[in-house]
Amino acid sequence: MPTITYASLRSVVREVSIGAAWFPIIVFTIHVVVAKGFDAYRWFPPLDIPMHVIGGVAIAYFVWCTVAVAERHNVITTIDDALRIVLVLALVTTATVFWEFAEWISDHTIGTHAQGGLDDTLFDMLCGIIGGGVYALLRVFRTKGN
Predict the structure, then answer these.
(1) Domain that includes residue 97, residue range
(2) Which of 84, 71, 74 is nearest to 143 (CA)?
(3) Is 58 inside any structural domain?
(4) What single string gives the DSSP state of each residue in 43-59?
(5) Is the pTM of this model over 0.85?
(6) 15-24, pLDDT tens digit by residue?
(7) Nearest CA among 66, 81, 132, 50 for reference residue 41
(8) What whole-number distance in Å separates Cα of residue 71 and Cα of residue 65?
(9) Residue 12 and residue 20: Cα distance in Å, rounded?
(10) Residue range 107-139, pLDDT digits in tens
């Protein structure tokens, strides 16, 4: 039975901060540099596609590692692969929705032009979800192969 204490939660947060958060932070930093520093999305719009896929992979990695750390510290019980995939996909999908909300808000409040319309938004979300799904499936198959 999992035991949740302040010390166990602190350990999880510390380990996740060091071991899992680096990937989404790097992807976000690259996005900011590419978008603001080089205006690359305006000059090469297809760059948006791999960035959303990689963003989905980064969020899936973060969720996967966070669950593994929480299991190791006995904060949650061990979950089976099917539930882990559903959890990863649900949280990647949630992250894509919030990302697109942030783009819409920035377009309407500070005049950015991050969104190219409904088709662009939905395709961006699909790319992120595909990235997260591929990551989760590869992790399961890799684990089963060991």
Answers:
(1) 6-145
(2) 84
(3) yes
(4) H-GGGHHHHHHHHHHHH
(5) yes
(6) 999 999 999 9
(7) 50
(8) 10
(9) 11
(10) 999 998 889 999 999 999 999 999 999 999 999
